Amino acid sequence: MNQTSDLPNGYLKNRKISKALSELVQIFDLKDGNKFYWYKSVYEHKEQLHFVLLFHDDIVNFSNCIKQYYKPNLHKQIIISFGTESMFCFNSVDNKKFYNLFELLHLWLVDCNIHPSIVSFQNGNQLINKAYTEWCKDHNIKDKITMGWYDLWAKSTIHTHMGLIDKLQHDNKKKHFCCLNNKPRWHRLKVLEYLHDNNLLQHGSCSFVFNDDAKNILKDNFNREDLVKYIPMCRDGWNTCKDIKMPSNMKYIQDVPELDSYFSYFNETCFDVITETIFNSNDWFHTKHGLQENYWHNIFFTEKTWRSVLFKRPFVLLGGAGSLETLRQHGFKTFDILFNEDYDTITDPEKRLSSAMDSVNNVIEKYSVSQLQDFINSKDMQSILNHNYENLFVYAEQHKNKISHDNWKNLSWETHPINPTFQGFDND
Q1: Which runs of E-coded beta strand occur in 162-289?
Q2: What was the pLDDT predicted at 257?
Q3: Which of the 8 DSSP states describes residue 11?
Q4: Is the C-alpha dihedral spanning 125, 129, 130, 133 positive or negative?
Q5: Residues 30, 73: one domain?
Q6: pLDDT at 283
Q7: Are 151 and 141 in contact (CB under 8 A)?
Q8: Number of domains in the chain
Q9: Measured between alpha carbons, how far is 158 from 311 in angstroms, rounded to an integer?
């Protein structure tokens, strides 16, 4: 395995961003002719080695990176932080083999000849320890990795969105709800189907990016063009709204035109329908590849949820079963004074989604936009919204990644080819 520092042609057209990423991306030439791109960050402190994973592209090859940094005679503890994601299904670069997360972790350690007892894995899934315990029992695993979770997105959302709050408008709403979607996931398509079938799209502002997966998830008699004409993806910064497979040009949040378009979703609507990253562990993508796993339990909050809290907006949450209860356990208050939140207790994904969207429908039928706005401005609702806003800062601090890299050696820079002192990896 060799390492190269060249980014692929057209990887990013923005030169400043390309230069910044070139300092983060470590690229390996694999034996099969493919390349593995690692958005790397690795630190060393005395006998500890800490890998921070940011993305999951071709992560099945991550053991190659561990080998480059792990020194058996020095490192007595290895920490792998992967708080950006909370999935259990990962595919090889050729999409020919799929792995569940726990299988993958143990394969890495076997490949690197590392005993699980010295490894800690931190994920965004708040139920990962429960899931891992059940997986180990099912697979008779005796030597276990230490599992834990942290919330990367709460702290990140405060950092990236705090300066945008003054752009929010709280009066003169035009529609009931906002529903922002990006990648085509099963529950997001089903939410949009529900909105379409019940003539609710006119009551909300929605976004979506279609690709071939969307065609496979939508029901056979569903007209994709009906959604396209109601959901202007260009408001999210995409160039075109039809027949799009991948974004051709995305405007960054700092761009003024994008900000105006972005905030139109919030400024014209009263509440959010949040389609979180994870809704059902065994969703369409996983079952398609035969990876239905009964042991997998998942509660994962991203900027989608924390943005609504920070912007002081009521919401219906399409997340894992028990997501609202988990928020309450963390000190947040939910919105049973407005919505029927019984959906949170329903484990069957189709029934839970239908129940949640029925709750949205009931609010639309019960309140006009002006009545709903008055309800949200009421003392009781404002008390909930302000409480959640204040609690978010407490929660984000309590559940951030506890590892501070003060006094740690940054190996990411020392082992990057653009560093003049880099002499190459010792592969012996």
Answers
A1: 175-179, 204-206, 269-275
A2: 38
A3: S
A4: positive
A5: yes
A6: 57
A7: no
A8: 2
A9: 10
Measured from the Cβ of residue 281, the count of other Cβ atoms closer than 10 Å reads 24
In this prediction the pTM is 0.82
165: Cα separation from own chain's centroid: 22
CA distance 380 to 10: 52
Pairing of strands 35-39, 204-206: unpaired
200 and 91 assigned to the same domain? no
> Are residues 261 and 386 both part of a single domain?
yes
Are 393 and 254 in a shared domain? Answer: yes
Q: What percent of the chain has pLDDT over 90?
A: 47
CA–CA gap between residue 70 and residue 426 (Å, rounded):
11
Give domain status of residue 319, yes or no: yes
Distance between alpha carbon 315 and the CA centroid of its chain, in Å?
18
Distance CA 302, CA 155 (A): 10
**394 shares its domain with 260:** yes
Q: Please check whether residue 247 lies inside any domain of the structure.
A: yes
**What type of residue sits at position 385?**
L
29 part of a folded domain: yes
The encoded tokens of residue 353 equal: 């989604």
- E strand spans, 245-384: 269-275, 315-318
Both structure tokens of 379: 């003392």
Residues in the chain: 428
Per-residue model confidence (pLDDT) at position 335: 98
Alpha-carbon distance of 189 to 198, in angstroms, equals 14
Per the domain annotation, does 311 fall within a domain? Answer: yes
Contact indicator for 76, 48 with CB cutoff of 8 Å: yes
Burial of residue 103 (CB within 10 Å: 0-12, 13-18, 19+) is middle
The closest alpha carbon to 283, from 25, 112, 51, 87, belongs to 87
41, 178: one domain: no
Task: With cut-offs at 50, 70 and 90, classify the pLDDT of residue 59.
Answer: confident
Q: Token pair 């058996």 is at which residue?
A: 72
pLDDT at 114 (0 to 100): 97
User: Where does residue 277 rank: exposed (0-12), middle (13-18), buried (19+ CB within 10 A)?
Assistant: buried
Return the axis-axis angle of helices 349-366 and 186-197, rounded to nearest 10°: 40
Do residues 214 and 128 both lie within one domain? no
Give me the domain span that covers residue 127.
2-150+402-414
SS3 state at 285: helix
